């Protein structure tokens, strides 16, 4: 029983390690895309913000934008 448990744990750890490597590779690919975008004149910082906004649910995004507008108005930025 202990040997089977040890094998399962080892397999799970190895899966996590493979996934971490894949994640690193994907992260590098994403950096390359932002570098390419910057090279042709796009603002990578703004692109990151747009990606983050597109991930949000519409209601959450509207709420965040409303609060941001409120804070900006309170600080005389709007």
Q: If you had to describe this structure to a student in words, what would you say it looks like?
A:
The chain has one domain. It has helices at residues 2-39, 44-55, 58-74. With 78 residues, the protein is mostly helical. The model has no long low-confidence stretch (mean pLDDT 96). The protein is elongated. Helix content is 86%, strand content 0%.
Which helices and strands occur, and which strands form pairs?
Elements: H1 2-39, H2 44-55, H3 58-74
Key attributes of the depicted protein:
single chain; 78 residues; mainly alpha; elongated
Described by the principal axes of the CA atoms, the overall outline is: elongated
Radius of gyration: 21 Å
Number of domains: 1
SS strand fraction = under 5%
> What composes the largest sheet?
none
Distance between the termini: 66 Å
Low-confidence spans? none
- The number of helical segments is 3
Which percent bin holds the helix content?
over 70%
The average pLDDT value, as a whole number, equals 96
Q: What structural class do helix, strand and pairing data support?
A: mainly alpha
H/E element order: HHH
Assembly state of the chains shown? single chain
Query: Number of DSSP strands?
Result: 0
Short description:
With 78 residues, the chain is mainly alpha-helical. The protein has 3 helices and no strands.
